[in-house]
Design brief:
Layout: H1 5-40, E1 46-52, E2 55-62, E3 79-80, H2 86-98, H3 124-129, H4 145-153, H5 170-184, H6 188-200, E4 206-207, E5 237-239, H7 241-252, H8 259-266, E6 279-283, E7 286-296, E8 299-306, E9 311-317, H9 324-335, H10 347-355, H11 360-374, H12 384-395, H13 399-412, H14 417-430, H15 433-446, H16 451-461
Antiparallel strand pairs: 1-2, 1-9, 3-5, 4-5, 6-7, 7-8, 8-9
Helix pairs in contact: 1-9, 2-5, 2-6, 2-8, 11-13, 12-13, 13-14, 14-15, 15-16
TPR repeats: 417-450
Signal peptide: 1-23
Domain Beta-lactamase-related: 37-322
């Protein structure tokens, strides 16, 4: 019997559709295996959502909602998401800017005139870009918003001239929230609920949850010690997976603010620096990527959106293991049909206390010893392990040790522009301008798109 062309075409389309379905089912199975294995090893406790081509293909709640491990997580649980919650004040500022109620060049003193004279130097854009020069919140002593405002009133001078440097801290966030309240006459909580959560379709998100609220995951450390839910300063939105996905889509589809406003808060002051939306990229009026991570106590969250591909990966945990980026990279590899790395323990998170007592050379020896004996348990697969360690040392003002670690990393990964950029930054902070210039030039040679290196090379060449 002779088959018609139309019938043959239908058969081919059916076969192709079947192949795609099988491929998608395989990807889902691999993602589930990855997450379940991480949970069995004690490396992930939390909730996961993966969307591909604009459709949710995987959603799971793995582990427990509390330190006593009596309540199982479900996808209805809300999690604190650390710094990602700062997106709500950044978007709020841009909503008011588009309504003509503020200008990004306005000084903080225009809205909060009670603050000392330094408020007349800081623009709202400085708050959004963390370039205000403000010192951080005094986390060890501050108990509430009033106490933090009192601390700000006591500041005599800024750490640096606004706009000249970058320093990521929460007083920038605190003042954004206070400006929103001053302009609108609403509490920050009410403003976010009315102008962001509801329009974005976030039906179960809650701001500043406490012990009386149900279905809020409680964070805890590896010793089973629980953390509190209430933070010293207010304004922190806790979300479910569905809330988080709705928020990611609201940003990607410009439901709340325009592409022009979005560009203002998705780009940092320089590459690699945080902005109101964390980080990402745009091409014209389209978002290409939106990436933001957040950590608070033992909560940790990560959002990665690759908008043109319709890919969104959301991870939230209430038992921080410092590995969400590793998990996310493996999920991306699975979606792309590529080999992926199983989840391993974080070298820095596991041994930071021990590293505090070691010199840079001792850290390198310890790293190699562990790599030889436990490469199946700890992550040594890429440059990030030592890069994170180097930045940890820099945060402790241990610049010479950071240089040693970064320098060794360039020997392990000589084709990575990023590791030479990190080494250049360490030398720059150390005041060694010739070696900073040398390494920034090497970084730019390996990564011609490194705009940060270009700017610093121009500065150092002068």
């Amino acid at each position: 019997m002779k088959l018609s062309f139309k019938y043959i075409l239908l058969l081919a389309m059916f076969a192709l559709g079947t192949q795609r379905t099988i491929a998608q089912q395989t990807r889902i199975a691999h993602i589930d295996t990855l997450i379940q294995r991480a949970n069995r090893l004690g490396l992930f406790n939390g909730n996961v959502l993966v969307a591909d081509h604009g459709k949710i293909i995987y959603k799971a709640a793995i582990g427990y909602a509390d330190a006593s491990k009596t309540a199982r997580l479900t996808d209805q649980y809300r999690f604190h998401i650390g710094s990602i919650a700062k997106e709500f004040n950044a978007v709020g500022i841009m909503i008011l800017e588009e309504q003509g109620k503020l200008n990004l060049d306005d000084k903080v003193s225009k809205y909060l005139p009670q603050l000392p004279a330094w408020a007349g130097k800081i623009s709202i854009i400085n708050l959004l870009q963390y370039t205000s020069g403000l010192p951080d919140v005094k986390w060890k002593t501050v108990k509430d918003d009033a106490g933090n405002m009192a601390d700000l009133m006591k500041i005599d001078s800024l750490d640096f001239e606004p706009g000249k440097k970058y320093a990521y801290n929460n007083n920038n966030v605190f003042l954004q929230r206070r400006i929103i309240e001053k302009i609108t006459g609403q509490s920050f909580k009410q403003f976010v609920e009315d102008h962001e959560l509801k329009p974005a379709g976030m039906n179960t998100a809650i701001i500043d949850p406490d012990e009386n609220d149900k279905l809020v995951a409680q964070s805890y450390n590896n010793d089973g010690k629980p953390d509190g839910l209430v933070y010293p300063i207010s304004g922190w939105t806790a979300v479910t997976l569905d809330d988080f996905y709705a928020w990611a889509n609201a940003i990607a589809k410009f439901k709340l603010i325009s592409p022009v406003a979005t560009r203002e808060i998705i780009n940092g002051v320089t590459p690699g620096r945080q902005s109101g939306l964390g980080g990402g990229s745009m091409e014209g009026d389209k978002i290409l990527s939106h990436v933001h991570d957040g950590t608070s106590l033992n909560y940790q969250a990560l959002l990665v959106s690759k908008v043109p591909e319709g890919v969104t990966i959301i991870l939230m945990t209430n038992n921080k293991q410092g590995n969400l980026y590793s998990i996310e990279k493996s999920i991306e590899a699975i979606l792309d049909g590529k080999p992926y790395v199983q989840v391993k323990r974080s070298f820095l998170d596991a041994f930071s206390t021990k590293l505090d007592l070691m010199s840079g050379e001792q850290i390198i020896s310890f790293y190699n010893e562990l790599k030889n004996k436990h490469s199946d348990e700890y992550s040594f697969d890429d440059e990030n392990t030592l890069n994170e360690t180097g930045y940890y040392l820099m945060s402790k003002k241990r610049l010479a040790d950071a240089v040693s670690v970064f320098e060794y990393n360039t020997k392990l990964f000589p084709k990575s522009g990023n590791v030479f950029d990190s080494l250049g930054e360490a030398y720059y902070n150390q005041g060694n301008k010739p070696l900073a210039l040398l390494n920034y030039k090497k970084s730019l040679q390996l990564d011609p798109a490194n705009d940060n290196a270009k700017k610093i090379i121009i500065e150092l060449d002068k």
